[in-house]
């Protein structure tokens, strides 16, 4: 385990899989916004390098790392940013540490090689199975599926796409919306967790658009909102 210095009133966020593209981008952005970060990883050397890079970029010791299980225990809020194939096993590994917490699930149930085709799992969505596994003592919120990870990795890069936030607990959704807003994203209440089927599916649509138009960062923007939602 490594420890991060500095303290403020912001909750510690554990990011399981924070060594990867999506988790690393969120870790950098949240660290820059003042949140203490614990990167959960199976590989301490790799995680230490990511922490060093983040801390250098934000100019303070904001990020530390730990095993998945220990990171989940240290986080007041836990974000899950591992590939779909590892989603369930990772949650099973840390479930004892999640009681009473918010779990932010970013998982898109892509089925390689046809990642540009919507292939939702039985049960409707990837996150539905996780909420069923954990039960009501963990507030599972689905978010960030439609944000291209590479856009998060540059602090001076504005990310224009909206974050659709689904969850059955409105207060938990609100917390995740604030977390997104704090890193410069517009985030919207998108209804109950069941609606995550749409946001998870949308990612394959965006991958398809990226491919057809030879771009890398297709995203979505909701129109018809009079003011930016918060
Ligand atoms: N990439 C994007 O643009 C994007 C955008 C929105 C949402 N997402 C979602 O975010 C999640 C992570 O995506 P990503 O692109 O960041 O993935 P990634 O870079 O391939 O992997 C993220 C991390 O997951 C961990 N991991 C745990 N079990 C694994 C396994 N069996 N195989 C490979 N890695 C494993 C690894 O961390 P350790 O080795 O350190 O344990 C790895 O660094 C996915 O569910 C994806 O659908 C991705």
What would a concise description of this structure say?
This protein is α/β, with parallel strands linked by helices and 230 residues long. 39% of the residues lie in helices and 15% in strands. Helix 4 (84-94) packs parallel to helix 5.
Give keywords:
globular; 8-stranded mixed sheet; binds NADP nicotinamide-adenine-dinucleotide phosphate; 230 residues
Describe this structure in words.
The chain has eight helices and eight strands, in the order βαβαβαβαβαβαβαβα. The longest helix has 18 residues, at 196-213. The N and C termini lie far apart (36 Å). It is globular, with a radius of gyration of 16 Å. Helix content is 39%, strand content 15%. Helix 1 (21-32) packs parallel to helix 2 (44-58) and helix 4 packs parallel to helix 5 (126-134). It has an eight-stranded mixed β-sheet, with helices on both faces. It is an alpha/beta fold and 230 residues long. The structure holds NADP nicotinamide-adenine-dinucleotide phosphate. NADP nicotinamide-adenine-dinucleotide phosphate (NAP) binds next to helix 1, helix 2 and helix 4.
């Amino acid at each position: 385990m490594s420890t991060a210095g500095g303290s403020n009133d912001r909750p510690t966020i554990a990011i399981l899989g924070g060594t990867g593209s999506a988790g690393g981008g969120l870790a950098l952005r949240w660290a820059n916004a003042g949140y203490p970060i614990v990167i959960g990883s199976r590989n301490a050397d790799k995680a230490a390098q990511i922490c060093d890079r983040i801390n250098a970029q934000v100019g303070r010791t904001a990020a530390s790392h730990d095993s998945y299980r220990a990171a989940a225990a240290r986080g007041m809020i836990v974000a899950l940013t591992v590939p779909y194939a590892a989603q369930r096993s990772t949650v099973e590994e840390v479930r004892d540490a999640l009681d009473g917490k918010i779990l932010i699930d970013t998982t898109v149930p892509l089925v390689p090689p046809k990642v540009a085709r919507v292939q939702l799992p039985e049960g409707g969505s990837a996150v539905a199975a996780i909420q069923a596994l954990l039960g009501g003592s963990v507030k599972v919120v689905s978010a960030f599926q439609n944000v291209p990870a590479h856009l998060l990795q540059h602090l001076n890069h504005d990310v224009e796409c909206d974050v659709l936030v689904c969850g059955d607990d409105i207060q938990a959704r609100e917390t995740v919306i604030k977390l997104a807003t704090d890193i410069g994203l517009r985030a919207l209440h998108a209804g109950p967790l069941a609606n995550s089927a749409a946001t998870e599916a949308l990612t394959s649509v965006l991958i398809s658009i990226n491919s057809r138009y030879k771009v890398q960062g297709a995203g979505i923007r909701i129109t018809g909102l009079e003011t930016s939602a918060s």
